[in-house]
Amino acid sequence: MFFCQECRRDPLVFLEALRRLGTQKPESAASKLQEYAARVLNTADEYVGTLQLSLAQHVKHYRCLQENVEQSEKEIAFWLAQTQGAFLTSVRGIGIVLAAGVTAEVGNPYDQKPLNNLVSYSGIIPRVKQSGGPEGETYTRPVAKRCNRILKDYVVQSASHLGLHGPEDLMLDYKRRDAAGQHADFGIARRYLRMAMCLMRTSQTYLPRHLRQPRVKLQERAGYYLMTWPYLRDKWQKLGALEAAFVKDRPLGQWRNMIQDLYEIKLKV
Q: What is the SS3 assignment for 142?
């Protein structure tokens, strides 16, 4: 209804309105909207007022939901910044909400059970059965239904994000598993869970495999930290939690101070 009325205005006025709204390629958008408007059936006059009121209420409802989501994400970021789970945001493809979900379900990483138990608890590992004794045939069954479904949902979502936007080695592994007919989401989810526990327990940000070798020069690691720092900083800045995350007595703040001293570089907040 709104666009139909707008499209009947002076084309230049309509084009300027689209530009103010930040529309990409406003000329093309205006042309398409005017074309669509010409095909729309006219609404009976007695219904126009009711439909406009209904649309206005829907817009208010949508904006209210949007504000609630934004406020909730800010609160999530604030609390995540105080935990070891903040280190998970250093992995490309893992946002604050996904990191917070995994952190909340795992709990204190130092008190957690062995990793194999945690993987089984999250419901992302198939069950292997064997019949006929030690020499008997083994066969794989579906993953157990009894698991932490919330943790499973978060780690599988994380795996999907890593397959699309994660570090190069994880993206390649995801594609390899998928091409081989394996359950790529479960496979990468297991890798991510192992990696996540390591990052939280050692208070370290993610490093590519080739930079984890003991013979790597300090300059190479320093270059990687300088290159990825803006990406990590922007994640927290978008939710207004930059200062909360990098306060000197919080996990990421302590890590930042250590990196600056060790590699003699400046990571500006």
A: strand
Pair (113, 227) in one structural domain: yes
Q: Where are the alpha helices (DSSP H) in the chain?
A: 2-7, 11-20, 26-39, 45-80, 96-106, 115-121, 149-165, 168-179, 184-202, 218-238, 242-245, 251-263
Same domain for 88 and 59?
Answer: no
Considering the domain architecture, whether residues 218 and 96 belong to the same structural domain is answered as: yes
DSSP run (H or E) holding 128: strand 126-130
Per residue in 36-72, pLDDT (tens digit) is 877 777 778 888 889 899 999 999 999 999 999 999 9
Residue (of 38, 191, 204, 46) closest to 183 by Cα position: 191
Q: For 168-179, how does the pLDDT look when each residue is reduced to its tens digit (9 = 90+)? A: 999 999 999 999
Domain housing 218: 73-263
Each residue of 192-201: b (16+ CB within 10 Å) or e?
A: bbebbbebbe
| Mean pLDDT value across residues 96-116 | 92
Same domain? For 59 and 189 the reply is: no
**Block residue for tokens 């419901």:** 123
| pTM of the predicted protein model | 0.77
Residue 3 confidence (pLDDT) above 90: no
Closest to 166 (Cα-Cα) out of 228, 116, 241, 248: 228
Dihedral pair phi/psi, residue 261, rounded to 5°: -75, -40
